[in-house]
Amino acid sequence: MLYCDAYLTPRSLADAFTAMAEYRGRYRLVAGATDTLPWARAGRAGDVAIPALIDVSAIPELRERRVDATRVRIGAATPMQRFLDDGDLARAMPVMARCAVWFADDQIRAAATVGGNLVNASPAADATPPLLAHDAQVELACAREGKITRRRMALGDFVRGPGKTALEADEILLAIECAALPGYGAEFEKVGHRRSLVIATVCLAAVVRLDAAHAIADLRLAVGGVGPVPCRLHESENFLRGGAATLARLEEAAHMTVGLVQSRTRHDYRRDVLHGFVVRGLASALRRAGGASPPVGELEASHA
Amino acid sequence: MTQRAAIVLNLNGVDHAISVEPRRTLADAIRDDCGLTGTHIGCEHGVCGACTIIVAGEAVRSCLMFAVQADGKRIRTVEGLADGEQLHPLQEAFIAHHALQCGFCTPGFLMLSLHALERDPDLGDEELLDLLASNLCRCTGYQNIVKAVRGAAAVMRAGVVR
User: All domains of chain B, ordered by start, with CATH?
Assistant: First the structure.
């Protein structure tokens, strides 16, 4: 059972910090709030008393959206559905659009926010691998001695472990800034027990750009669900960058990932899935990048 | 001390001024405080979709949303679907295709489909399956629901939409 005394909706960053100071140690920040009730009702925590829920979704800084040819800046309270609906955003972040298709389900995607997904820091968070592929940075803000200050760090440094981030108790995740990757082909792979609403057992983000000769000019691969934190697959990236996109090379790159699986359970299964995801995800991304997709043989055509 | 919030829920065009605890879900507020019991509560943790309604133009799970989050917003529930005795094409299609048995999940499927078809009446078969995978039905199964939504989409495309 959830007990809660106040639901506050500050309209400015300053008001949010005032509320956070007033309820210091006794509040929870929410935006879409879609995880709050399942978390409170899961029973693991027994009765949950949160004196104040502070809804940060109305703060202008958390609703920002700036897209140009090279950079994207999105407020932390951007709902996941926006990555599908907003054409400019979908072009600049092609892998986030693919990810959003598989994020929760239609109803939750409309409310749940990208920032919420990051701060929950699930090892299987859907949005984290795509944002790692975009070299995302997070911007955090706090109010100390009456002054609002901001700091910035790489997303890979922000997510510290299952449920753990670098966010201090008096901080708010303000925005995410990352590279725009227009013209890249993208794929997001995810497998779980159900088509909708699953927590991924493994998820993978793949983005690829081809050069004029159809060799791989740039690629980024990131995986979730196989260890305590999502991570980039640098070894596979470095191997493939600059080379031809043949099936044999994709297979070799996929083979380099087997040692990365550090999950607590189902190691062999996750190794097989990750291998298959690297090959099939890259094949799809290559096709969307305008290349000829290597035949991926007997790999299943659909998933989740 | 719990601070009750005075909020207004605009349900199918009618304002309901109510007072709620912050923890009250939108689904509970609609059913118990506003008396519109067409919105069903199944799993109460965002898995089944029976409580799907449309808030400010977006289909949402009302069991995961706090009532205070919907203050002042336009909300559409299954009660707003029919025009008097005239059923909506989706409702007609669910009857024609036997898309329900116990009917518990039906309001959620209707509102989920309504939102999707109003946005894109040309929804492809694959997209339709992705969409309907959002909600659970425990008795009829999904084939007849898929057929009903396809049937309704054809009617809505033909411009018989009210």
Answer: 5-80 (3.10.20.30), 89-157 (1.10.150.120)
